[in-house]
Amino acid sequence: ILYSLCLDSLSILVDLGGAMSHQRVSHADMCRVIASAPTREYLDAAKAAIQASRSNDEQFTEHAPSLLNEAIKNYNLASRKADLDDANRNALDLQLGKVHTQRAIAEYSQSSCNLELASHHLKFAADHFQAYRKSVGAGVAAPKFNNIASRMIEMCDANVDAPRHRRSLAATLAANLIGGEVSSYEGSRLPRVQLQMYLVEQCWRQSVRILQGETSNITAVFSELERLCISPILEPDEDSLIFAWGRVQQEMTNAATFLSKAKLHLLRAGAESPELSGQLKIALDSKSEQVKFMLQRACCMRKLGLAAHKQRQVFTESDDLDMQGAYDVVDAWREAYAVAESLEQSGMAVDGLEDVQPNPDVELMAVASSLLGNLWATMRFEDKAKQLHINVLRLGMSLDPNSNSIDEPSTVLTSKPWWIKSKKFLETKQREVREAEERERAAALSEIAEDIQALQAARNLCSKPTADDDPRPFLKHIFAKHPPKTAVPTNITDEVDGVEVIKKTTFMKVMSHYHPDKLDSHYHAGAVPRTEKLLFEEIQKSLNSIYEKNYKS
After folding, report:
1. SS3 118
2. CA dihedral for 284, 289, 290, 294, sign (positive or negative)
3. For all residues of the chain together, what is the average pLDDT?
4. CB-side neighbour CA atoms (13 Å) of 157
5. What is the mean pLDDT of the segment spanning 434-458?
6. Are 97 and 132 in contact (CB under 8 A)?
């Protein structure tokens, strides 16, 4: 009766650190009350309060803070009981550490979070965990702490909504909860590996939020870069994807730092828990690859943005063209391309990612190549522009193995603006080349129009409607008017001058003498006059027509 009266009516309060205070009763009276109550009642009351603080989905209830305060109070009361043996006292230290941690997480989950109060609970949690580790030894404590770390991460995800609160809580837990950032720390390392990985995950999630989930689609970024080459983007512009990727770069830099700490702790963990260490190693390697790729992409985005900004300044914001400035812009695009090839070429520190193999960002390589190709075209360096746009198409083909050829790309490539524009550029240039060649050919043919007409007349003399054509009129004409560069053997000329049917082998030898490719060896560097090349092509056409009719079958 006295015990119940003291708790319910006299409002005995026990503070969070375990020191007792009183209202209207003396310290001696409180000690007698605590001593008279069974230890099991305190422990059961604490357990009941903890269970009532969470719903079935592990989320804290509305009254979780007060219920967890009640659990802490009862555990503290139980810890003052003289009938506790060493084993139970050690277990009580572990339970107090856990419930203080839960109370801190519950505080972080509140809309009006009291960070000082949360820090107060985490300090006591760390003290109790340290006491437990020192009492039972690191070997016994390690599995317990591993489970606690996993549990804390689950509770944090389920209850703390604000990303900055999650990160603050996880960082505090990683730094202080299981033993402090000191080189002489002899406690369990794996819990801290888990917490550092959780911090990496928070950086990753924040990056995804910043990009609104568009981590792989850079179509909008390409369009923004094209606009940035012409008109400026006012900073800070929350709608700018280039600006968003700048924030992602900072997040991924932080993630790399956390990965470095996680790998250091894993290295020092030794044989603490081989199975868990193996699982964490696999997870670390996978996350390292993701972080490095995202950091590389973010860094390249920044380089691309700087190159576009510099191009606008040189080409649109100045009345006079600065050629040195133009070449500086070219170097800026090339630098962005180099970073897309490998993060190591960015010049930035990659601590925590040294063991990750270089992996090119093929799509950003294509973007940089396309935009640089546009710049060369603007500067009238058509050949350089063409080579870069060809490179864009090659990169695109390597990016999507489902594309059969450049002329038959998949829907993945046809949805990429850099692919479409580079392909259109090359098609335009090819069409211009064909049209120029056709005009040049037509001009050259007009110069030898009389020779071609004479060739056609000689060919017509060969025609025999009801029998094989007689090639002699045509062969005699070309031998007389357009002799080949290499002298024709006399046995061939004698056969042509004779009356017997010209043999197939003889005719084929004549064809070889008039093949247009045979002209190259007779001119320096193969610079055959265009009219002579066209004339031999026309001769070859007529010879082919006779061969098709007389000899092929």
Report:
1. helix
2. positive
3. 85
4. 13
5. 92
6. yes
- How far is the C-alpha of 384 from the C-alpha of 371, rounded, in Å? 12
241-255 confidence digits (pLDDT tens) = 888 999 999 999 999
Nearest Cα to 481, choosing from 453, 449, 451, 522?
451
Nearest to 440 by CA among 531, 538, 540: 531
Q: How far apart are CA 481 and CA 538, in angstroms?
A: 14
- How many residues would you count in the chain? 553
Query: Which residue blocks in 83-240 are alpha helix, DSSP H?
Result: 86-108, 115-136, 138-159, 163-172, 190-210, 219-228
From the list 125, 136, 142, the residue with the least C-alpha distance to 90 is 136
Could you tell me if 245 and 270 are in contact, meaning their C-beta atoms sit under 8 angstroms apart? no
The separation between CA 139 and the C-alpha centre of its own chain, rounded to angstroms, equals: 40
Six token digits for residue 419: 């692919």
Say whether 526 sits in a helix, a strand or coil.
helix
What's the CA gap between 218 and 220, in Å, rounded?
5
**Which residues are 60's β-sheet partners?**
54
State residue 13 phi and psi, 5-degree precision: -115, 135
Q: Which of 299, 298, 306 is nearest to 235 (CA)?
A: 306
Determine contact, residues 329/335, Cβ cutoff 8 Å: no
Do residues 75 and 56 make contact, with C-beta atoms less than 8 angstroms apart?
A: no
Q: Which two tokens stand for residue 67?
A: 């219920």
Nearest by Cα to 117 from 55, 59, 169: 169
- Quick check: 302 and 246 in contact, CB under 8 A? yes
Closest CA to 206 of 250, 149, 240, 170: 250
- Do residues 383 and 186 make contact, with C-beta atoms less than 8 angstroms apart? no
Return the pLDDT at 140: 85
What's at 11, amino acid-wise?
A: S
What sign results for the dihedral spanned by CA atoms 154, 160, 163, 164? negative
Span 491-548, pLDDT tens digits = 999 899 888 889 999 999 999 999 999 888 888 887 889 999 999 999 999 999 999 9
Q: Kindly indicate the confidence band of residue 180, based on its pLDDT and cuts at 50, 70 and 90.
A: very low
- Amino acid 235: pLDDT: 56
Q: What is the amino acid identity at position 517?
A: D
Give dist(CA 317, CA 339) in Å, integer.
27
SS3 state of residue 405:
strand
Angle at which helices 163-172 and 115-136 cross, to 10°: 30
**For residue 163, what are its two tokens?**
């990303």
Nearest to 299 by CA among 337, 331, 326: 337
Runs of H (alpha helix) within 379-471: 382-399, 411-414, 417-447, 449-462
